[in-house]
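Hey everyone, long-time lurker, first post.

I ran two proteins through the pipeline my lab uses and got sequence/structure pairs for each. Pasting them in order. The first:
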Amino acid sequence: TKTAVLAYSNSNIDLFSENSFYNIPDLKLKTVTGSKTINHIFTENGLAYLSTDIGIVVINLAKREIKESYTFSMNNQLLPVTGVTTTENEIFAATPKGLYSIGKQNPAIQDFSSWNKLDTTRNFISIAASQNRVFVTARDPPH
């Protein structure tokens, strides 16, 4: 879409395309308990996946609107998402409490309990994919 996604520390979002800015204030204006920090932005096929402290926010860049959001919750606490990437058929999410995946076409994608728990023991801080392979980095546990 030739659109740049700009995220600010106050959770405001701007899209920049064709020499114009378009503001999406939805996350900034959302009332939540805790942080709405945007930790990472991943784009693919006209969608921007924003990894935030309240889950994943998906923006349709052509329509300039929030398409959907996925809230990650564990023990009644919001689980921050530190990064998102995709392969041909799956979405992967890195969190401080593990690595999760789900099929892109899964009708229950918004239900965190439907996501596959790939690793729930490590604090993942970064994620990327290349040639249908996923790469993650994790913090070393304290000694």
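...and the second, right after it:
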Amino acid sequence: MKIKSILFNLTLLAILTPLAHARWKTPEEADTVRIQKNLNVTVKKNGSYSFTNETLTEIKNEKGRAELGTVALSYNQRAGSLTVLSAETRLSDKIYKVNPRFIEDKPVATDVHGFDQINQIKISYPKADVGARIYLKTFTEQKEVPIPGHFDTFLTFGNGLVQKHSKIVIASELPLEFVFNDPTGSLQHNYEIKGGRHTLTVCQLKPIYHEFANEETNSFTPLRASTWVSVSTTKSYAELTKNIVTKYDHITSQPLPPDYEAIRKAAQDITPFTEAANTVTSLLADKLRYMGDWRPIRGGYIPRPLTEIASTHFGDCKDMAAVTTAILRKLGYNASVAWVYRSTANHASNPLVNASSFNHAIVKVENEGRSYWLDPTNPSSFAQGIPNDIFARQ
């Protein structure tokens, strides 16, 4: 009877919880409606790209007014540029241009735990009242890319707002791989190759809207239930990383600086492997303070030389993974740096090869027929298991 009572109470709790009443919002409940979106992307052979983005969005209520009254855009100032071509409010058949004084472009303060070089453009619209339509046209140029010869993008439709019409054109000097998820049959596409140029055109045929009601704290829309297009110029991760692997191997094969050589000596006679690995990562934590480097281009994918890491006494995940790999290799273990998506929340995997599938560097070790996954940035050395925030990740 007691077990039945517990099961009954758990069932009742599930019924009464607000999450049990989650449903899709209707278009009438939306805060904003995207009347039109035009996106034109040009991709060069080296992977650099530029695009013009044009949007017209209507404010439907006070929440939408707060969201669209002031718009913030960000870009990497050193690696590219973002220009506001036109910004205006359209209300009651009148057009109110945004005064240049209310378009501010300035660097964002660096996070205390990391480096970046991000600028933010803030646009404050006049007459941003309920019923107003907010127009914005921008041009973005990305001159420096994280992985040369590669381009990818993931385009969503109707997530968080009603999307009425859109047209996407991607013209590329590189061949395009693409995958569609269109549960409501709202998209039409065409792909053609002409004069060495690959062009993918996507047109939206009817309105799209994906947003949950009664789940204000959960904005995650399941990948299978939303409308999206994934595009990539690379067919495999081996192809994506072939040049990067060489750079990593060059760094991890460098002679160990004195501090790291001392760690190797301290661990050389320790068995089993888990104890030796925990010794390496715990001693490394005494010598190397974590300092994130989240710049998307320089510092984003390749670690620094071992001597530079040792001289600064700080490093980000890829620096710490490279040092750990170098020490373990000198100890005779088959170690490599691995990329993973680190998060305790749900993370939907993109079906195509893309650089944003990974946000963290760890270490993989093959030893006596078993794979070990080490995270040198973790507060605790844990070679005997896998930390929860990287467990079962790609």
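Reply from user beta_strand_b:
Welcome! Quick read of the second one: Residues 278 and 381 are 5 Å apart (CA to CA). The longest strand covers residues 32-43.
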